Amino acid sequence: MGRRPCCDKLGVKKGPWSAEEDKKLISFILTNGHCCWRAVPKLAGLLRCGKSCRLRWTNYLRPDLKRGLLSPADEQLVIDLHARLGNRWSKIAAMLPGRTDNEIKNLWNTHIKKKLVKMGVDPVTHKPLDRKANSVSSQSTATTESKSDQQLQSRGTDGQIQLSENTSSPTEASSNADGADPLLSCLWEDNTSLLDELWQFPSNEDVDYGSVAGPVWPWDEGSCEWLLDDQALG
DNA sequence: AAATGACTCAACCGCGTACCT
DNA sequence: AAGGTACGCGGTTGAGTCATT
Fold it and tell me: Cystine design at A214: which of A63, A151, A164, A231 (Cβ 3.0–4.6 Å)?
């Protein structure tokens, strides 16, 4: 029997999204929401499969996304959550508002994993690596790590891994506000009026991310269930 | 300045599962 | 209950960028 492809392979564009495509997708979702991802590309006039549209929206175009590096606190949270949940990136991302599972996954694979290894911690089990492996791994990674990765480490008495970074870095604290992609800025500017009407986002300070419900969305509740789902762990 | 290697991250693929008929 | 469909998730890839030689 086998599984049918998610979309007709013929005539479906793949690869990086153009500004024009982004624009189409944004404006379609702003006006209509996403009733059914499979129908979105057709209705929005895009030669993409629904899956690709969903991914593009959730991972890049969503207006509530934060960009840039994680703060040390967030990074610590990711480590703690990973220790408890394993590679369940969507669950981990749900605890970090504005972050996507894809982003967390990438950050884990490119930064955090290396840091843990460097610190002598098995990134899979979150237990200390044995000495032999530890010395080998530290030798092998010492030559390749970047200076920006340099950080202090300390381990609490309970054995929990603690990361501490030089928080004086100007890019770090402001990664949320200033990390916006110029292209995205441009795209969003084009839709400013719509955005103002449709998305009155509370600022990060205003949102109680500890609550399950998450920010209140101006569109109808039915169409934003996906977001509420994101907000709830488990 | 050019070549090479390392790194990053957006995007794709395929599987699992929930939902519908 | 069984089969089909759509969505979401996690793993993987590869093009672009950055750093080093």
Answer: A231
